[in-house]
Amino acid sequence: MNRWTKKELVDELDDLRFRLEEAEDTLRAIRQGEVDALVVSGPDGDRIYTLKGADYSYRVLVETINEGAATLDRNGKIIYANRSLSELLKSPLQKVVGSSIRDYILPFDRASFESLLVQAQQGNSKGEVHLIIEGVITPVLFSLSSIPLADLPGAVGLVVTDLSQQKRQEKLLRYLTEQLIKAQENERRRLAAELHDELGHALLNLKLSIKSLEKNLAPEQGALKEALSKIIQNIGNAFQDVRRLYQHLSPGDLEDLGLTIALHNLVEEFADIHKNIIWTVKLDNLNGFFDIPQATVIYRIIQEALTNIGKHAQAKHASIVAERKDQGIAVTIKDDGMGFDPSDVGPGKNNLGLLAMEERVKILGGAFKLRSEKNHGTSITFLVPFSPLGEVKDETL
Which residue blocks in the chain are alpha helix, DSSP H? Predict the structure, then answer.
């Protein structure tokens, strides 16, 4: 049996430590994509092993993009990750590689990720999820696609886009839109008050004065009496127009009678003006689920939809259905009019009314859907939740 001297043992230990560090450095380089091939010494001499997929130009591209990128196995384990993903996750690259992407996903979103992963193994998938990064919930977009790797069946490529800045901008835009809508409502109420208090009272006083004058006419002044009667009738018509404008600007029915009756009155008034349209109306009881600001937003959305039908649709039939669901209300407004191409709707085009409707729905935390086809009518559906997301209130950004 050979006996080792203390010096020989120390030298052997140093050699083993050096070889271990070299092996660890090699593994780190492989994981980080820094190695294209390995030279391995053996009994038959040196052999070169090329790492599959280690295309230099491709790897440079992946390493320099701002989005996080990774290769996942069929179970969601991270086989490769670029530096951007490591920086996004705020975790060392050597810790990211080998971990499961599920470890970073908010538990609430893991079921959604499983669905995206299954879809991606058949082709492509995309969806928003939330990551937990150092205790902070971060919204991201996952884009996944199948990767045909012979030695890794079911592999999926993942690109992760941080949506934090986009969400902040959307929140700011929504806040500014809320303020604009509030300013519009305040101006509407001011104009409505002026119509009611000034023009309405002036017309009423004028009507009473002419009626008083009419009573004092002599019997032989029949022609003048007839002329005054026509003037009184015209003043009455003008007074009804003022009342209609007042209701349009400030729907007092909302506060006094509730959303359901206010909407019934709105449709009846519209049908009275557009007598050529046959209406079907089905409204569940919506009272008590929304505060006045929310109810006003819903009222304005429907009011704008009716206005569009009256101005543009040339419809013969129209319908409005408002149904109470478990989590909110669903409203659908349809007509059989001339319709239009939905691709024509967008910023910079003559469709501010439709855009305003969609923005109002978003303020309430809801969803908006538009369907239309030329000569085949239009359908607008929007969902508004009962949850606190629907509250219209000031926020500190």
Answer: 6-31, 56-64, 83-89, 93-96, 110-122, 164-194, 201-215, 222-249, 253-257, 259-273, 292-308, 352-363
> From its phi and psi, is residue 270 left (phi > 0), alpha (psi between -120 and 50) or beta?
alpha
Q: Is the dihedral of CA 199, 200, 205, 210 positive or negative?
A: positive
DSSP output for 346-357: STTSS-HHHHHH
Q: Encoding tokens for residue 272? A: 């009275």
Q: What are phi and psi of 108, to 5 degrees?
A: -60, -30
Contact partners, residue 276, CB within 8 Å, separation at least 6: 316
200 three-class SS: helix
Could you tell me if 317 and 336 are in contact, meaning their C-beta atoms sit under 8 angstroms apart?
A: yes
C-alpha closest to that of 145 among 120, 127, 126: 120
Domains in the chain: ranges and CATH: 56-162 (3.30.450.20), 165-250 (1.10.287), 256-397 (3.30.565.10)
What are residue 321's DSSP bridge partners? Answer: 282, 332
Task: Kindly give, in sequence order, each residue whose CB lies less than 8 Å from that of residue 113, ignoring residues fewer than 6 positions away.
Answer: 76, 101, 102, 105, 129, 142
Record the pTM: 0.52
Can you spell out the DSSP letters for 243-291?
A: HHHHHHHS-THHHHH-HHHHHHHHHHHHHHH-TTSEEEEEE---TTSS-
What does each C-alpha distance from 374 to 349, 365, 366, 386 come to in angstroms? 17, 30, 27, 34
Condensed to tens digits (0 to 9), the pLDDT of residues 352-384 reads 678 888 888 988 888 899 999 999 999 999 999
pLDDT of 136-190, one tens digit each?
888 999 999 998 887 788 889 999 999 988 888 877 877 787 787 778 777 877 8
What is the distance between the alpha carbons of residues 49 and 27, in angstroms, rounded to a whole number? 14
Work out the angle at residue 135's Cα, subtended by the Cα atoms of residues 134 and 140, and round it to the nearest 5 degrees: 80
CB 64 within 8 A of CB 83: no
Amino acid at position 239, single letter:
F
